[in-house]
Write a structure and sequence with these properties.
It comes from candidate division WS6 bacterium OLB21. Keywords: Hydrolase. This is Phosphoglycolate phosphatase. This protein has 200 residues and is an alpha/beta fold. It has a single domain (5-194), classed as Rossmann fold. 37% of the residues lie in helices and 12% in strands. The protein has helices at residues 16-25, 72-83, 96-106, 122-131, 146-155, 167-170, 178-194, and strands at residues 35-37, 54-57, 87-91, 112-114, 139-143, 160-164. Strands 1-6-5-2-3-4 form a 6-stranded parallel β-sheet, with helices on both faces. The termini are far apart.
C-alpha cells in the first residue's frame, strides 16, 4: 500500500507530559528495557509462558513496516500465538482512519485493540489488561520505541518489555519519516549510551 499521511502516526494523541518524564526522570528509572530481539519473529514466546498471559504489540515498525498494511506472516504468527493460549492486544498512536483499517484487520483474529492511544501514559496499558482480565504484571509489551512503547509499559507495571529493531529496517521496507527515525535513535543513545543501561 502506498504511503498515505492520513493513515499514519498521530502525534496529537501522544501524552507529552508523560513522554517528557522519560527524558527528565530516565536517569532514575532503570530496567525500562528488559529484553531485546531483532523482530517479533525472533522472540522465544514459549520461554515466557509460565510468567505471562498477555502480549501487547505496538503496530508501526513492530508488526509491519511504517504505516503499511499488516503482512500475512505477521497475522499468521499472531494466530499461532492465540492457538497456544496467549491473549493478544495491539496498542498504537495512529490516526482515526488507520485505526479503523487496523480494527478490520485484527477483528477476525479476535485481537483486542486500542488505537489513538496516549502513549506513554500508563492508563491505556492498564485498560487493555483490564479488558482481557489479566494482571498487567503478567503482560509483555513489544515495541520499537523505548520512550513511548516500553516506558509506558514500565509505568503501568508490565513486567516484560521487549525492544525490537524497526520492522522496516529488518525487512528492508519503506521506513519511518526522518523525525521518527531521529527520535528513536536519540532515545537509544540516551538510554543505552548516556545512562549506561543494559538489558538484564
Amino acid at each position: 500500500m502506498p504511503y498515505n499521511p492520513a493513515l499514519g502516526y498521530n502525534y496529537h494523541t501522544m501524552h507529552i507530559p508523560t513522554y517528557l518524564g522519560f527524558w527528565l526522570k530516565g536517569f532514575k528509572q532503570k530496567g525500562i528495557v528488559t529484553d531485546t530481539a531483532k523482530s517479533i519473529f525472533d522472540i522465544d514466546f514459549a520461554s515466557f509462558k509460565q510468567q505471562a498471559d498477555l502480549l501487547i504489540f505496538d503496530v508501526d515498525d513492530t508488526l509491519t513496516a511504517f504505516k503499511q498494511e499488516i503482512p500475512q506472516d505477521t497475522l499468521d504468527l499472531m494466530a499461532d500465538l492465540k492457538s497456544k493460549g496467549w491473549q493478544i492486544a495491539v496498542y498504537s498512536n495512529c490516526s482515526e482512519q488507520r485505526s479503523k483499517q487496523l480494527a478490520c484487520t485484527f477483528s477476525p483474529l479476535k485481537i483486542t485493540s486500542q488505537m489513538q492511544s496516549e502513549k506513554p501514559k500508563a492508563e491505556g496499558y492498564l485498560q487493555l489488561a483490564k479488558e482481557v482480565n489479566i494482571d498487567p504484571f503478567r503482560a509483555i509489551m513489544i515495541g520499537d520505541k523505548i520512550g513511548t512503547d516500553l516506558y509506558g509499559a514500565y509505568l503501568a507495571g508490565i513486567k516484560h518489555r521487549i525492544l525490537v529493531e524497526p520492522y522496516s529496517r529488518v525487512h528492508k521496507e519503506p521506513g519511518a519519516d526522518i523525525f521518527n527515525k531521529l527520535v528513536r535513535y536519540i532515545e537509544k543513545v540516551f538510554y543505552f549510551v548516556i545512562l549506561r543501561n543494559h538489558v538484564r
